[in-house]
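Morning run. Coffee first, then this:
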Amino acid sequence: MMPKVVIRKAVEISRSRLLGERSPRKKHRPEKTPSETTPSGGQRADGPANSTGFGRMNVQRLFSIPARARAALVLSLIPLAGVAFFFRAVFIGGEQFAFRDIAHFYHPLDAYIDECLAAGTFPGWYPYENFGQPLAASGTAAVFYPVKWLRLLVPDKPQADALYLGFHLFIAAVTLYRLGRHFRCSRHAALFGAVAYAFGGAVLYQYVNPPFLVGAAWFPEAFRQLDRLIAFRRIRNLSGAATVITLMILGGDPQAAYHAGLLALPLSFAGAFRGRETKVRSDERRNRIFHAFFFSGGQPVFLVGLAFLFATMLAAVQILPSFEFNRLSERTLLPESHRQILYHFSVPPIRFLELFFPNIGGRQFPINSRWFSYWSTDVWTPSLYMGILPILLAFSSMRFWKFSAAKDNRTVFLSWFALAALMFSLGKYAPFYEQLTRLPEYDAFRYPGKWSTLAAVPLAILAAQGFDRLFYERRFPVVFSFFLAAFFLSALVLRDVAGFLPGMFAETAHPCPLFGPCDSELASLHFSQGIVHAASVVLIVLGILVLYQAQTRYAKSGFVVKYASAALLSILCIDLFIANDWMIATCDRKEFAVASPIRDEIFRQHDLAGRPSLPVVYRLPWWAPPEFGKTSSPDRLAEAIRWDVQTCWPKYPLLAPPERRVMLADVRGTMISGVYCERINAIRRAYHENRIEDFEKGLAALGVEWVIAPHSYTLQTDHAEEHAVFCELPDAPDDVCLWKIREPAEQQDIGYDSRLIFRNIPRLQRFGAWISLFALALLLFSTLFGNAGCFRLPGKIAGKSPGISPADGISYAARSK
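And here it is:
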């Protein structure tokens, strides 16, 4: 039990810091201010306004805004303005997000979770898909993520989506700004990198996948906290690292936490092998139980492991049920089905041109002009563009050698980090990602394209460092100006020499089944616009740098010298707003509320039959009307949303009232039961092999009552409706038909009980909740008393500069000699 004197001491220190007093640990004689003294030097008769610590000066200190806070408030206006600009159609335009997962997966699912929480029900079970499956055990649902609970405060769900996504874009900018300051970048440079990171294509487009936006938002802070933990060995850095890693896991992106661990390994080993023993009294040294480990250099590795252990305990309420769900899912029981999609969304090497020229490979929507689809139709993010000035500064700042120079080692580390991330994003186009999958449990993650988002972190920091070099070095601005001029001329040559390529490849590119064939004329136009866009920005920046050099050399001051950094930052904002605004796909909200004649017919007959259970519907996997793949339309997003809602595409039935929802029998999300997946795969094979009778028998044995299929299914049915009956729909959508299974089995006779299979998950959730609460209490306890100075981690290295990091000189010991 902790002595009362220690507790009293911690409380006194916390109170004194809150009231603006000095620490009671050191006795001192406070200096008299002019307001408290007489002209002769004596004390005023009235004395201090309040001897208990609530004097006039302390009250002003409590309620005044420090200069640093004012600067942070001003700097935060730019990311907030960016969020408001990109999401303006949702905030004030009466629209909502209309493409990919944010439209058909996360918006209905999050609305359902909010509905359960508002009703006081824990959303632990999801009864509307695959005969029921765990919901809270799925990391993508992010039921335990604290930020998601704030959605309950916003009744308008499209607005809640925009606020949730906008908050994480803002957090991405803030965390990258803090990381830039950690690497000794100036405020303007750190803000420059933050804007390039948060509103670059690789991060901005993650609005369609909120869990990965959560990971991108918190990853820079995880990098910073782990780096400071290795540097300073403080309790608060241990708590901060564990907290940020926990947020990434609870937010639905455990892979980002895994990547943070991969990043911390070289940093911790560098600090372990190049560190030195700090000054500790000999009697304390002898009393250290782990002296041989802590002072032989192994402490950084231990602390990083301790931070991840702490994070695992904090996120145990999510990790334990997710681990059990994964153990019973198709990823473990049917590994071949998982390996087939392991390399989806690999980035072909030609797409690296998008780093320099916005939309040079064409646009994916609303009219398809993406001639890069000749190489790959998988698009994790349709643009990698984060600004031409940041990417040129980043590449000009890269260093892959000079490890002996302390000032260059942090740049060397970031350069190798950026290069490795870009190489891993190639996926199936290079052998690097295959080696990565050999790491423990890494093959459970999919999609190499996620590394393109991760590569934006070191590129943004390198860009911030290059931004500072423009104003704090003599030779670099001159060299960079020549570099800009060479790039400008190369861009013009590329436009003239390679202008025929988009039209040639667009004619043979794979047509998109949703947005139609590639428009060759529009592809050529976007190719030219991308090059002209980048060249124009480079020309403007070149002019500013020339004027800046002229004024600093001859006049030593002037308008350009004073506002050059602000001008470059403004150019970056305009550059990104013009280049990436098209990626925010929205449509009118009324498209999500259209009536579904298919669902109406299902419930009409279901009510007549008097069946108490939910209607069980088998909707064939994704297809689209044939005209979608043959023609283009500027309203294709709205048309696709309307068609998906009417045909009961998975998750859209959740937008209906609870009494009008159906249960879909074959939904492939992040994970499903391996036993159920094997059974469904057999039914799918029967359909693809044109064995319609076996297909309908399998559905009947599974308890399916209805089949939603394309018209091609009707043409394949030549058995005189022996097992299914065709239903006439007067207002049916294009290329859709509805069939009713004649004799479906009752649910108790289908031979599959999902609650029995996942019976251990509720227990693991309760057990994990207790572990998380214990870890949270331990975190608060250690943070409170650790910051109060009651105990410290052994071997703490002296130094207060946030620029001291393993990436900056690798060895902290050299700083303290």
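The two ends are 39 Å apart (CA to CA). Good start to the day.
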